[in-house]
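Name: Thiol-disulfide oxidoreductase
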Amino acid sequence: MNKHETSYKYIIASFIGLLLVGTAIYAQQTKSANPVNSSNTNQNITSEPETKRLAPNFTLDLLNGGSVTLADFRGKKPVVLDFFATWCPNCRRDMPHLNGLYEKYKDQIEVIGVDLQEQAPLVEKFVTDLELDFPIALDINGAVARQYGVRYTNFHILIDKEGKVIGSIPGDIKEEDFIKLINL
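Structure predicted for Thiol-disulfide oxidoreductase:
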């Protein structure tokens, strides 16, 4: 083996070792930054139905004035939280479909759009352009998204009538998801 081959193998082995150490450190930091907590103010949400727990409560300002408090729906009807941003092409595609589902099922399910850290005028134009009718809440500082462990847009949290999280849907929501939520 010549000197260059030995150096090359040493560099590759070092890179792989650093990559593994970095991955382990990142995984540990992510785990400690998002601990599972039984209080209602800092829960991570999973899509596993057996992990049903009370959804973290919040109160957010609504785009059209007033505010919305999640706990107000407890015992009345299920809720779909739709975390979105105006710059998200998937949100732009999915939200008109979500609005159609809201129109069809609004007596049985509440839909709350939660905009992620954008200013009201920008969100207002987006909502007007897409002709959305469901309530739009402004999560200006991202606190509600952090409570729910939301890390990207076009992400839905499903909450049953008792106020418990039953799962999450990354990506587009379907009518079957609404029907399943109604029939719980």
